[in-house]
Design goal:
The protein is α/β, with parallel strands linked by helices and about 230 residues long. It has two domains: about 1-110, P-loop containing nucleotide triphosphate hydrolases (Rossmann fold, 3-Layer(aba) Sandwich); about 115-225, Zinc Finger, Delta Prime, domain 3, CATH 1.20.272. The chain has ten helices and five strands, in the order E-H-E-H-E-H-E-H-E-H-H-H-H-H-H. Helix 5 runs antiparallel to helix 6 (about 130-140) and helix 7 (about 145-165) runs antiparallel to helix 9 (about 190-210).
């Protein structure tokens, strides 16, 4: 089996790479089959089942971090004996313990966010507006504002979700959930909903007027994180 793992926080680049592999497979006449990590079927059963269309297949398994231990163990020991191709796709970076379970020869492609983008997201909380703005204006020298706003919206969503129910978060790692929970506690009740509304309004305004998104984001940070 030819196995490729695509993972990392830069889900925009990771998604583009996944689409590239799918398009390439279809061009070669392969059937692209999406596999659910928690479908209830064993991975061995899913990958070994015959094709209804009598084609070679490219299996795409999203959220591989949710694989049951038995499936990951089977993949590491027996996956190389399966004739089909498999792409594992994770929107987050998987830990070394997971990577070590993959069969020898698997191709691993990691898409990381720039370090200062992580710093910007982590700095986004009330009382920290000056530092947040400073990092933002360093960040826009190398990163498009659309990308910055996209990942900020995801972080604010996570900060809100964790206050409602940590199980809503699309992450499995305890350290990441605890980090988001700690940041969320710096916001007063109702403040995160205000930020979410402001970001949504800024997105509409920037697309329907001459107001640049960077100016609108500056204003949100200055008022909501003062």
């Amino acid at each position: 089996m030819n196995i490729i793992l695509i993972h990392g926080e830069d889900s925009t680049q990771g998604s583009l790479r996944l689409d590239e592999l799918k398009d390439s497979a279809r061009t070669k006449g392969l059937q692209v089959v999406t596999v659910e990590a928690d479908s209830g079927k064993s991975l061995e059963e899913t990958l070994s089942a015959g094709s209804l269309f009598d084609k070679h297949r490219l299996f795409v398994l999203e959220n591989p971090g949710r694989l049951a231990k038995r499936d990951l163990d089977w993949l590491g020991k027996q996956g190389k004996n399966v004739q089909e191709a498999l792409v594992l796709y994770s929107k987050g970076e998987l830990r070394k313990e997971f990577l070590k379970k993959l069969p020898q020869g698997s191709k691993i492609e990691l898409f990381r966010l720039p370090e200062n983008l992580y710093q910007f997201l982590d700095s986004f909380y009330p009382g920290n507006s000056k530092k947040t703005l400073q990092i933002l204006h360093q960040l826009i020298r190398t990163q498009p504002i659309e990308k910055i706003v996209y990942f900020l919206a995801l972080r604010v969503r996570d900060l809100y979700w964790v206050t409602q129910d940590a199980q809503l978060l699309p992450y499995k790692e305890d350290w990441r959930i605890l980090k988001i929970l700690s940041q969320s506690k710096k916001f007063e009740k109702g403040k995160l909903l205000e930020v979410i509304a402001d970001l949504a309004e800024a997105d509409v305004v920037s697309k329907t007027s001459d107001n640049p998104m960077i100016g609108l984001l500056d204003q949100i940070i200055a008022t909501q994180l003062e």
